[in-house]
Amino acid sequence: MSRKASYNYNLQKQIRRELENERIRLNTQRFYNRYLQQYEDMINRGFIDILPKELSNINNMLNEIKNNLDSDVTLARDISYQLGAYINEVWSLGNVLSKRLAQEFKTKIIEIKQNRKTMKEAEDKLDIFMKLVSEIKDPLIMDFAYDELQNLKRKIELNSEQIALTEIKSEINKIIEIATNKAEMWKENKKKDMQNEIQLKTISEIEQHFKEDLNENPKEIENILNSINDIKSELIKGNKIDGKNFNEIMRKEIEDVNTVVLNETIRKEMVKRIIKSLKHSGFVVSNPKIIEENGEKIVKVIAKKPSGNTAICSVKIDGEFTYSFDNYEGQACKNDIKIFEQDLKKIYGVELSNERVIWENPDRISATAKPIDNNFMNKG
Q1: Cβ-contact 336, 280 below 8 angstroms
Q2: Which domains does the chain possess?
Q3: What is the pLDDT along the chain (380 residues), one digit of tens a residue?
Q4: Residue-wise over 228-248: b if at least 16 C-beta within 10 A, else e?
């Protein structure tokens, strides 16, 4: 007996979920490492002095990713998506503000401290004033608040008897609130001005990330890279892409690559399970080979028994699995196929569905007998 059949294959849900989570974890870990390096570069460039809130946000998000990589990998992945969109905005803002703003911040603090009157009442109130001003850590907020703070300082010096401490505190809080709003508005406007630059930097990083996976499935990942390159070309021309839409597009491209890599991982696992099952049935299995048929790469496994029985298995990336058992006499072929399929399902966690018999020869009459094609039997 000889038989050739094909199935749709998959791994049991739990096994597939574990592989999927492992892929997400490894991919998120790679993004985390990249973002951590970028964060450390920003620290070294002095961005912590000019964008303290933003650097604190990045640090918190990095910690959240790290803490959830093992316990909640999908949450870690989602945070990494958010961080990817955010960190390049902060990087570009930092380059615009530069260390010069940090130096100006120190200079303005010194200027505010200078030329203080020595009158006791004014001195006490100026001490309170300076204590409150020293709590401003963001140099951009200080930049927008500076003129009003200087005006308030002069008011205290000239009219210390007529201004109460509560009024000083209230005035400073009001100045800081207005300056904070102005600083945030300035940042948002800058982000809009630099949107193309930020998006091009993001694309460059994602391209590099995808190229690290290129060997998994060159054809499919090249197609995704080409899609990203089309977006890059539009940005280089000066065309605008809405920030939210851009982030959604990038997320989809990342998930598409993840799917491509996951499918290849599942195929590799399927090949491993086929080899184990064949060996369990007494076959000597050759190393799997990758062949190309009709532009598609297929993994082929060839196995033989000392008796001459052969089994050839082909595994496609799209979830199709084909086997042929040949050079048998009697019911031995049927028994080997039964053991092979049962092992795949019960021992190795493979799900087989949509069986399609390509040909089947119930019994070999002679060594030269050829299998009967089911399609031929259906003709006429």
Answers
A1: no
A2: 2-11+268-377 (3.30.160.110), 115-192 (no CATH)
A3: 789 999 999 999 999 999 999 999 999 999 999 999 999 999 999 899 889 999 999 999 999 999 999 999 999 999 999 999 899 999 999 988 875 675 676 677 666 666 554 445 556 778 888 888 888 888 889 889 999 998 998 888 888 777 888 898 999 999 999 999 999 999 999 888 999 999 999 999 999 999 999 999 998 999 999 999 999 999 999 898 998 899 999 999 999 999 999 999 999 999 999 999 999 989 999 999 999 888 788 999 999 999 999 999 999 999 999 999 999 988 889 899 999 999 999 999 999 999 999 988 875 444 444 444 444 334 43
A4: beebeeebeeeeeeeeeebbe
In whole angstroms, how far apart are CA 286 and each of 289, 311, 343?
Answer: 9, 11, 19
What are the tokens at 295? 């532009």
User: Model's pTM, two decimal places?
Assistant: 0.77
Q: How far is CA 169 from CA 118, 125, 131, 144, 312, in A?
A: 21, 10, 10, 18, 83
What one-letter code names the amino acid at 32? Y
